[in-house]
User: What shape does this take?
Amino acid sequence: MDEKQAKKKIQELKKTIEYHNHKYYVLDSPEIDDKEYDRLMKELIELEENYPSLKTPDSPSQRVGGEPLDEFSRVRHTVPMLSLANAENEQELREFDNRLRRLIGDDRSFSYVCELKIDGLAVSLVYENGVFVRGATRGDGLVGEDITNNLKTVRSIPLSLNSSYNLEVRGEVFMPKGAFYKLNEEKEKKGEEPFANPRNAAAGSLRQLDPKIAAKRELDIFLYSVPYIDIEENIEKKEFQSHYETLEFIKSIGFKVNPYIEKFSTIEGVVDYCTGFLERKPELQYDIDGIVIKVDEISIQNELGTTAKSPRWAIAYKFPAEKKVTQVQNIIINVGRTGALTPVAFLEPVNVAGSVVKRASLHNEDILNEKGIKIGDFVEIQKAGDIIPEIVRVIEEKRTGEEKDFVYPKECPVCKTEAVRLEDEAILRCINPSCPAQTVEKIIHFVSRDAMDVEGLGDKLVEKLYNEGLIKDVADLYYLSKDDIAGLSGFGEKSAENLINAIEESKSRPLTNLIFALGIRFVGKKAAGLLAKKYRTIDKLLDAKEEDIAEIPGMGEKIADSIVKFLSDENSLSLINKLKEAGVNMEETQEDEGEDRSFEGSIFNGKSVVLTGKVEGYSREEVKKILDRLGADVKNSVSRNTDIVIAGEDAGSKVDKARELGVEIMSGEEFLDKVGYL
Ligand code: IVH
Assistant: This one.
């Protein structure tokens, strides 16, 4: 076969494979079996190997291509990716309808299209000349991150279209429930922390810098809009008359569109559709968190226009949080990395909103007392924001008199050191630095993704290594041998070797990661980055004066005090020495810093932001990191100079202060909505 013939054959194979891919992954009606599909792929790969110049990025052989990235680059959206206003109940839906009728005039008729609100992540897919060239996250709506390589691994995304369109389509990437359960089972087997829900699993997969990981995650996508489209040959703009027509078009060119789309001419129809799906939600193979209602006629959409945040012609009807009743079997105290003693209710397992809930944090003594929860009580629980289980109330009618009061301990339940309540804090702490429970949590933090990022070393495995006496502190990890690990149950030669390699690899993390990994109080990833940038080596940091640290913009006295206290402590010093002797990198190079990632145009850019409470599904460090990348200056306390306070769950007095000062308050959910959950 000469090159010309090979080119023709490759083109044919690409078309055939894309055709069968569409049949299998989009239409769910395969025409050929896996063996035949594999044979076609094999033929294509062989030809491409013989003629490397004929291998193009849109080839089906290139779905899992590309080396792992160091970081994602930024992409400015051609048309902003807006979010939707919410309707919490039927009444708000009717108000929405009244508002629209008022705005466009009562005498004119229009229709609504109802779609499922897929609980995943919004993405944009750009095709040039019919070829998929770029996929991005929503980011803050103006600028997102380029996740093309990860999106290419999503089999229902066509790499090339039948016509040479220049277009952008948008939709929601999600993880089907089946894939989510399978992934969590695997994670649990490996002793890794499972994902809380399919959306977090999908987000976690798209955040991976190595597309090979995303490729294993069985992600899927539904598309729902076309922000722009033209055809290359005659730059003819295609105009749609209605949203429904747009959806039919998206489907006709090979994309996956959700099948449960319905058109209604009255709000009554819309309301029935919404309540109907509330019941059908469990039958679906993927999670939905509501219904999206859109005006069908594009001309009326244009008349209504958009506000700064969302289109006036659409609304998201949010399903009410599912509530269940269960019994409190016990209340125990959990010891955190910083010694925080948090009461946790162990519950009779019950399925709420798609997953089994076994425990719920009670946060602190005040909350526990306020809710009046006793051991043995029947309680109503729900998932806040569909993620974190919380106890809503005690069902007092169900009390028998057998319930027992929970007595808050005076000491750490693990090391028995006296518990103290520090000034300004609602929680009790164990202040014994060598408390075993804290040590385990410290090691878990040390190996976590933002810290030393030891792949494959999950919480359960850390506990096991600690309980077996193989590690007593974080530095011991670097003195483990393959034999130590191979001797543990569940390990073989190969898995032990993988773990040792992952530990070895973590030695070369930049100083920023190491400082963060040490778990110094108040030192998150951002502060660690500032310290590493200023001092470059651990030795220089050890010599740093408190006043100098305090003066670094973004630090302040409280953080400086905590750093100096930590670094002058005998135990910390010997730990650092032990890490040094093991060969752990203690430097930050210019390269480690990476490019300047301030997001010009982001609503957070240049803003002073204070974070309080917990943002569902994200650690404080992750939220800080997102804000940092968006150009925000994250501060610890609210003042007149604060621009935005992000109030997650159980936000404290900072919110009152913000209210008092008239500072903008944003809920955790709004924040996630603005940054597109990444
Ligand atoms: S339309 C301008 N349709 O919900 C309107 N959104 O806050 C753009 N979503 O960011 C969104 N399913 O991530 C639309 N069928 C659907 C959707 C949907 C899920 C998500 C999307 C968006 C958020 C709205």
The two ends are 48 Å apart (CA to CA). The pocket of 2-(butylsulfanyl)adenosine is lined by residues 82-84, 115, 117-118, 122, 138, 172, 224, 292, 311, 314, 316, 673 (CB under 6 Å). The CA atoms of residues 426 and 588 lie 37 Å apart.
